[in-house]
Amino acid sequence: MSDAKNDCRAVVAAAFNQFVKGKDVAAADIASESLVLQTPPNPEMGDIGIPMFPYAKQFHMAPPAIAQEVVKIINSAQTLAGISPSSLGEFLAAGPYVNLKLNKGSAAFAILSRIAKQGASYGSLDENGKAPLAGRRIMLEYSSPNTNKPLHLGHMRNDALGESVSRILKKAGADVYKVNIINNRGVHICKSMLAYKLFHEQKGETPESRGIKGDHFVGQCYVEFDEYAKQNAEAVKQAEDMLVKWEQGDDETRALWKKMNDWTLSGITQTYERTGVSFDKLYFESDTYVLGREEILNGLERGVFFKAHDGSVRIDVSEITGSKDEREHEKVLLRKDGTSVYITQDIGTAISRHNDWQFNQLVYVVASEQIYHFKVLFYILRKLGFDWAENLYHLSYGLVNLPSGRMKSREGTVVDADDLIDSLHDDALLQIREKGREAEVGNAEDVAEKIALAALHYYLLQVSPIKDMLFNPEESLSFTGNTGPYVQYMGARIASILRKAEDDNVHACDSAEAVSLLTSESEWDLIKKLGDFPVVVAKAAESFDPSGVALYLYEVSKCFSKFYQQCPILAAGEQKLVAARLFLAECTLTVIKNAMELVLVPYVEKM
């Protein structure tokens, strides 16, 4: 419906400007793109509405009176802005709105033809035929795992958000560079290392000897340290001493660190591959903290930072916190022993990234618990004189937990990502077997894996990022309602219809004459919904919020279901109507597949 919306704007703007000149010859014209488009609450009132409220004060007229005058001009004109208003449909004044009831035949043909022509790229271009984010260079950081434990459910929300947003931004025309910071140094890493030395090293135990993934083995060591610390007051001091040795380059400490990091990274990489998450570049805290430390020492010399009474290097951040409490208005950047803190590496990493790939914007996908951290980080980078720091953005997301409660990795109560996906996979496979669908779906294991990923990703993405959420595995796997498996099922259902048509040697027809037959309410609702996809993509890209795409995918699925119930396709009778409805089904499947790709829902041809 993008062309119709654009033409509607042009016609109304031209008529409005004629009306304005009649009132005030010196008045400036309004641009068509400034007009706000809305959807009337009742289809009987029209398909597109443009409010006249913004102009009431300027002309001392009630909005309904303005709407009536504009519609009078439109309906008396042969052409406006080079467009025949009657070719678009019927313009009418509905209270304070100028509404348009679209010519269903021409509008439907324009929408479906565009979908058929653009195929997999449909959704990338706005109503003006342009990619909304063309020319934007956006770097996106997400995942950010620690090398002392495997990915867990919280990481799954982070990864799903980051990967989905990156796909949406690319769809909208942006040049996207996906990066991941591997947090592979620090006291928390040394805790796992210390536990390994205490409980496993002498036995020569490895992930292979234990028969588990490397990230799971190292994660067990982290849990073991927590138990050890409960019984030994010196445990944390021992880990801190190990970190000092690491930063001093102690060979033995570095060798153990590298071995355990490799174990973890190997396991995490397998999870990334399984979930379809990828990156253009990995950054490692063990590299970037050095640059961060140099920048802090340089800033200390320039007076940007100061040395506190205990020997630590700090910055006064009361300008952004508004607090004079020492705990809140001073941020430690280097400890008194000279070792780095978390923000040290973030400073170095940000600088390295801009040097590597000059972005227009850098987006950090990190939980809402770190809002203060990023507020301070961006402030420090501005104080250091980096102009690009103005273009840093924190995409904050809420916590995700299971109905059983909050997870804590150090206590071993987290839900490992691998275990969660395995569980979803097993449950999906069980459903396939119970329904006797193994032969029909082909590779049941493969289909079960795709259903599991759809259940997980869709459930995580359907909620606005900023909201906390509970992940309910049973709900996520439902084949009814607003779920990943439901939209997968709808895609598979359309594919089945198209296969049956091919077997019967029945073909779709994309001619204007055939499409003009698609005039029922359910057909028109579906066609209009398909036409909204580019707007949905653009809005999701601007807001970094995939939940709108997930909701749209569900709505398209519901619209098709209603259409299919009310409008037989292969049994429609008249050959041209069968062909037109097949064409509509083909276009619907194209849009569903395009939207599924954006929210990480694998397409399944048979379910």
**Global mean pLDDT:** 93
Total of DSSP H or I helical runs spanning 4+ residues: 26
Spatial order of the strands forming the largest sheet: 6-5-4-10-11
Major sheet description: 5 strands, parallel
Mass-distribution shape: flat
Q: In what range is the share of β-strand residues?
A: 5-15%
What percent of the residues sit in helical stretches (DSSP H or I)?
55-70%
The structure class reads: alpha/beta
Q: Rounded to an integer, what's the Rg over CA atoms?
A: 29 Å
What separation lies between the terminal Cα atoms?
A: 32 Å
How many strand units?
Answer: 13
Quaternary structure classification: single chain
State the low-pLDDT regions, or none.
407-412
Describe the model.
This protein has 607 residues and is α/β, with parallel strands linked by helices. The protein is built from 26 helices and 13 strands. The protein has helices at residues 2-23, 56-59, 63-75, 85-88, 104-118, 153-171, 187-199, 207-210, 214-231, 235-247, 251-275, 285-302, 318-321, 326-329, 342-356, 371-383, 417-434, 438-441, 444-461, 473-476, 484-503, 512-515, 521-531, 533-543, 547-566, 575-598, and strands at 48-51, 89-94, 97-102, 137-141, 175-182, 281-284, 306-307, 313-316, 330-334, 361-367, 392-397, 400-401, 469-470. Strands 6-5-4-10-11 form a five-stranded parallel β-sheet, with helices on both faces. It has a three-stranded antiparallel β-sheet with strand order 1-3-2. The protein has a three-stranded antiparallel β-sheet with strand order 7-8-9. Strand 10 (361-367), helix 16 (371-383) and strand 11 (392-397) form a beta-alpha-beta unit. The longest helix has 25 residues, at 251-275. 44% of the residues are buried. The model is unreliable at 407-412 (pLDDT under 50).
